[in-house]
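Let's sit down with a protein and look at its sequence and fold side by side. Which protein we use is up to you, so please pick one and set it down. Label the sequence line and the structure token line clearly, so we can match residues to local backbone shapes. Go ahead whenever you are ready, and we will take it from there:

***
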Amino acid sequence: MSLSPAAVAARRLLAAASHSSHEGGARTWKILTIVLAIPGVGICMANAYMKAQAHSHGQPEFVPYSHLRIRTKRFPWGDGDHTLFHNSHTNALPKGYESSDH
């Protein structure tokens, strides 16, 4: 089976690279970072921003499931009903959301 001249040259290049002492590795990773990683992160950030703009941020309807928001003992801070990192817009209390004006 004969190989094309391009395949022979590629095989020689790969064989020479495998026997070298990894001198060009840092340069290769630097180029890959600049060419692929930085634009990839930028595209992901733009995608997340556009999806956040298109998504409505309204409160979901409150459903009083019996297995959620169980309070067997009061919390030791505040009024005892709010968790430590309570967010009144997203976290419901056992009886529902605090206010609906958001």
